[in-house]
Each structure stands twice: as structure tokens, then as C-alpha cells.
Design a protein that fits this description.
Number of helices of chain A: 9
Order of helices and strands of chain B: HHHHHEEHHHHHH
Helix content of chain A: 25-40%
Distance between the termini of chain A: 39 Å
Largest interface: A-B, 40 and 37 residues
Structural class of chain B: mainly alpha
Radius of gyration of chain B: 27 Å
Strand content of chain B: under 5%
Strand order of the largest sheet of chain A: 8-9-10-3-11-12
Strand content of chain A: 25-35%
Number of helices of chain B: 11
Largest sheet of chain A: 6 strands, mixed
Oligomer: heterodimer
């Protein structure tokens, strides 16, 4: 089983009406790898990320996580749509962190973190609280357990959001521009948590504008533009000597 | 004290026109009160005599019971109708749309008359297989229902249509990211609605619902249409017919309606405070120095609690 890639996206197509957002995207991410997705806005990188946990359904291609097709079941040549309950079960194993944090504002930090473990996995509250406190400690926010999200800074909220995703013990973490909504001085604390996570061996796919992060912890880098992967490879190679003209012009603007 | 930080001492700006208006208004009100107090037609002794009459205070209790029970039922039905309307299921959507069309499109008075006639229209209902002689049993569905409960149903079915729209507005006011975050965590649609979306929508739902409760309190005076006569208005009318005095009993009824409305408003205040937690401006936890600059800003909308209050839908009367 270990040689099955964690994410295998094969010729993915996604369109809204007549507008094709993803045109033939193929990406493979192996277990324990950190893959970074960069590209101009509107290039389809966030959409692709949302296809991975089936928040968006794909129109073409095959997408599997840990060897299991997302949202569909294949019997012979035929594809069958999964029931919402089955899709939820698949999503429970995939953590996602959003640009705008999306913490639940009517719950305290602790309640945010234990919500899914107790409701979805049926873990006992005491056990969930213990795990939550460990995770909060890991992101350096154990003293904020009883605070409401509105009383936290953006960087603190995003660290809580990461802890909330980790509370489900995911096998894969998706990050959708996790630092784009943050004040510059708060970016570092979130990136530090993500680096720690990468070192612990978590498989991560990160849509980001933080080129430095991609260079430092990325195992692979994908440059997307216009709904296709223009260039991919080792981040240090792609970033220092991009082969494609579009990659060169994008990097010259952001570096 | 440092002259730069010394508080400003200045002569206050005067508002002569404002003052003049206030004097005129106070004078007019005083005149009206003095006139009313001495005017024969108001029959103040009778007002005093009947204000605390047992029959009337009991009727006020019945009115309050009608209001509360009808609203509870209407809120539950409205929630179900709103969720049906927002679901992906076209059948549920259509049913909800039809319900709203029917119950918002006809006057509540007409509906109440119909409720009163249901017992006559459906004298007996036979359950069996159509177009055959097979019959399982026959019931008289409405003869057994007490008029009080018929009134509750009549009021609730009408109100549910309005509550459905209020709830729908509340649900739509919750940012999409909340729904996505919950689903990304593996929560089902049901869990997402009940635990994440609906609790957050309460903040937007409660102010107009408070309005609906007060409106309902007054609508209960229409249930005579279906033959129920034990609530406040019908009771005071009956008494005034006995003693040939209309105005004093209208005043008695008004005082009771105002009293009950005031009590309901206090309840609304506490409900709003409860559902505003985590969003409304709150005192930051003590000995917590690093929250100062982030306090009170909603990450999902970027608005502070005050601003959110300001963009909540305006209160409205629908009658």
C-alpha cells in the first residue's frame, strides 16, 4: 500500500458552465511530501485544491486520495456517484485550512477544535478535549482555549484553524493560501507551524504566494496558469532556473 | 497638567429651536392628558374597576398562551420550510414555495374563518382504497380539537410562512465559508445546518422574530373569526356589551396589550444577548494583553459586532 501515491490527479477537468477553470491537470503527491502550488490569481489552483476533497466535483479525469476515488465508486467501466454520507466520510480524513480561517465564531477555540471529532467521529468529549489541548499547545495557543475567535489576531486564528483540522488526524492536509489574509508581521507564526507539520511527516498540498516557504520545505512545486500545470519539479530548481517563459515572468514579479 | 492634554473647556453650542420644540410638545401632551383626565367619555372609574378584573387578567393569560404556543409552532415550521426551500431537493423546494404562496397570499382573517369551518367541511373522513368499497375506518378529525388549539394552529400556519422567510434570510446571512469549513471537516449536511449555520443565523433571525411575536400578540384578537372568544379582546368586548361602556374597556385591553408587549421585549433583549456571543462586542477576558487590537472583529466578514448589528435586516411589520 505504501507505494500508492497520497494524491493522484489524472487529467482533471473542471468547468463552471462554459468556462473551463481546469484543463487537463495531472498531479501526483506521494506520502509525506509537501507539494506547493503557485501561480497567478484565477489560474485555478484554489479550485484544484477544492476538487481534491470534493468540495467541488470534477467534470473529467480521475482523482484519488490514498488509492480511493474521491466522490465516485468505480465498478468495471462505470462510475457511480457516492452518497453525501460517503463523501463526508472521505472528507473527514482530509484536513483543509482556508484563506479566511473560517473558524466557527459562535464557539470558543476549544469548542471549534472538538466539534468535528465529537460529532463526526463520535469521540468522547474528555478524550477530544485532551487531544485538542495537546494540539493547541503544539500551535502555541493553549492559553487561548476559552477565547472566542473574534478575540484572536489573524495569525492566532489561522493556527487554531490548523489545530482544528489536525484534530481529525487527517492523512492529508490542504492549505488554501493560508497566509494571504494576514498582516505581514503575522505570516511568520503560521508558516512556522506549517514547517513543524511538514517536518513531522504530514503530506501537505499548499497553495501559496510564499515563495520562500516553497523553497525551504517544498518537496515539489507546481506552477499553474490558465488551468494547466505549466511547469513542475524540485522547487529549488524551478525557482532558480525556470524553463518556461510564463514561469519566468511570474517569478520575476513575485520574487 | 500638561497644557497639551488639558481637557477643552468651551461654551456648549446652544439649540434654541430644539428647546422651543420640546416646550411646545410638553405643553401639548400636558393639555391632552389634562383633557383626557377630565373628559366624561373615558369613564376612568370603570377603567380602574375592570383593569384588575379576574375575567380580564385570565383573558390576558389566554392571549399570551395563544401567542407563545402559535409562535413556537410557527418558528419550528418556519425553520423546516426555510431549510426545505434552501435544500437541493426540487420536491421539497416546490412544496415550501407553494406553502408560502398559499399562506402569505391570503388574509389571516380569511384563513381563521376557514379553520373554524373545517369541522363542518370535513364532518367525517373515511380511510380506505379509492374506487372500491374497502374502508378501514372513519374519523371526524376536527370535532375533537378544542377551539383553543384550532386557534393556535390557525395562527401558527399563517405565521410559519413569514417565519420561513425570516429564517431563510438568516441562513443566507451566514458566510459560505462556514458551510465549507464544516463540510471539509466531514460534517454531514444535517450537522452543518443544526450546529454551525442555524446557531449563527439566530443573530439575524431574532430581531425580526421579536417583531413577529409582538405582531402575533395583536393578531390573536382576530381568532373570534373561528369562534374562539376567551382571549383578551373578545373578553373585553363581551364585558363592554354587558355594561354598555365601550371606551373604558378598550383602554383596559390596550393597557394589558402594552404590558404583555413590554414583558416580551425584555425576553427578546436577553435572547439577542445570548446569540450575540462571540460576535457582539464583549468584554475581553481579563489579564489578556494581546487581544486588544483584534477584539470584536468578525474574521469571516471583516465587520465588527457593531457593524453587523447595523447591516441586519430592518425591522418590519407585515400587516
Amino acid at each position: 500500500m505504501t507505494d500508492v501515491p497520497m494524491v493522484h490527479a489524472d487529467h482533471i477537468v473542471k468547468s463552471y458552465g462554459s468556462h473551463q477553470v481546469l484543463k487537463d491537470v495531472s498531479v501526483t503527491v506521494n506520502r509525506g511530501e509537501v507539494a506547493c502550488l503557485i501561480g497567478p490569481s484565477g489560474s485555478g489552483k484554489s479550485t484544484f485544491l477544492r476538487c481534491i476533497n470534493h468540495l467541488e466535483s470534477i467534470n473529467g479525469g480521475r482523482l484519488s486520495v490514498d488509492g480511493e476515488l474521491m466522490g465516485y465508486r468505480q465498478r468495471g467501466e462505470k462510475l457511480y456517484e457516492m452518497s453525501p454520507a460517503e463523501v463526508s466520510r472521505q472528507r473527514a480524513d482530509i484536513g483543509m485550512v482556508f484563506q479566511s480561517f473560517n473558524l466557527f465564531p459562535h464557539m470558543t477555540v476549544l469548542e471549534n477544535i472538538i466539534e468535528a471529532p465529537t460529532q463526526v467521529k463520535g469521540i468522547k468529549k474528555a478524550a477530544a478535549v485532551a487531544t485538542a489541548m495537546e494540539l493547541l499547545d503544539r500551535v502555541g495557543l493553549a492559553h487561548k482555549a476559552k477565547a472566542y475567535p473574534s478575540h484572536l489576531s489573524g495569525g492566532q486564528q489561522q493556527r487554531v484553524a490548523i489545530a482544528r483540522a489536525l484534530a481529525m488526524s487527517p492523512k492529508l492536509m490542504l492549505f488554501d493560501e493560508p497566509t494571504s489574509a494576514l498582516d505581514p508581521e503575522l505570516v511568520g507564526e503560521v508558516l512556522d507551524v506549517m514547517k513543524g507539520l511538514a517536518r513531522s511527516g504530514m503530506t501537505m498540498i499548499v497553495v501559496t504566494h510564499e515563495i520562500g516557504f516553497a523553497r525551504e520545505v517544498g518537496d515539489s512545486l507546481f506552477f499553474m496558469d490558465g488551468g494547466v500545470i505549466v511547469e513542475s519539479g524540485d522547487p529549488r530548481e524551478v525557482l532558480t532556473s525556470p524553463k518556461h517563459e510564463r514561469t519566468q515572468s511570474f517569478l520575476s514579479k513575485v520574487l | 497638567m500638561d497644557p497639551a492634554t488639558e481637557p477643552i473647556k468651551a461654551v456648549k453650542l446652544r439649540h434654541p429651536v430644539r428647546t422651543a420644540f420640546a416646550v411646545v410638545i410638553v405643553l401639548l401632551v400636558a393639555l391632552f392628558v389634562w383633557d383626557a383626565a377630565t373628559r366624561e367619555a373615558y369613564q376612568w372609574p370603570l377603567v380602574g374597576q375592570y383593569l384588575l378584573d379576574r375575567r380580564i387578567s385570565q383573558a390576558a393569560g389566554v392571549t399570551l398562551a395563544l401567542t407563545v404556543l402559535a409562535m413556537i409552532l410557527a418558528i419550528v415550521m418556519g425553520l423546516v420550510l426555510a431549510v426545505m426551500r434552501l435544500s437541493d431537493n426540487p420536491v421539497l423546494k416546490a412544496v415550501s414555495w407553494f406553502y408560502l404562496w398559499l399562506f402569505r397570499g391570503t388574509p389571516v382573517y380569511v384563513q381563521l374563518v376557514f379553520w373554524g369551518l373545517l369541522g363542518t367541511i370535513y364532518r367525517s373522513v373515511t380511510i380506505g382504497i379509492p374506487f372500491t368499497s374497502v374502508e378501514f375506518f372513519t374519523v371526524s378529525p376536527f370535532s375533537a380539537i378544542d377551539l383553543f388549539w384550532l386557534a393556535v394552529l390557525g395562527l401558527a400556519f399563517n405565521e410559519a410562512a413569514y417565519m420561513a422567510e425570516i429564517v431563510r434570510g438568516g441562513i443566507l446571512s451566514v458566510p459560505r465559508g462556514q458551510d465549507e469549513a464544516a463540510r471539509a471537516l466531514g460534517m454531514s449536511w444535517r450537522q452543518t445546518m443544526l450546529r454551525i449555520v442555524v446557531p449563527q443565523s439566530m443573530r439575524v433571525i431574532i430581531p425580526p422574530t421579536g417583531n413577529e411575536v409582538i405582531s402575533m400578540l395583536k393578531t390573536t384578537s382576530l381568532v373570534t373569526a373561528l369562534g374562539f372568544s376567551l382571549e383578551l379582546y373578545a373578553r373585553t368586548r363581551a364585558i363592554s356589551a354587558q355594561i354598555y361602556a365601550t371606551v373604558p374597556l378598550l383602554i383596559v385591553a390596550s393597557i394589558w396589550y402594552l404590558l404583555v408587549t413590554s414583558i416580551l421585549m425584555v425576553g427578546q433583549y436577553y435572547l439577542e444577548r445570548y446569540y450575540g456571543r462571540g460576535v457582539a462586542p464583549q468584554r475581553a477576558p481579563e489579564n489578556d494583553p494581546d487581544v486588544a487590537d483584534a477584539a470584536g472583529v468578525d474574521p469571516t466578514t471583516g465587520l465588527s459586532g457593531d457593524e453587523i448589528e447595523a447591516v441586519a435586516p430592518p425591522k418590519r411589520e407585515h400587516q
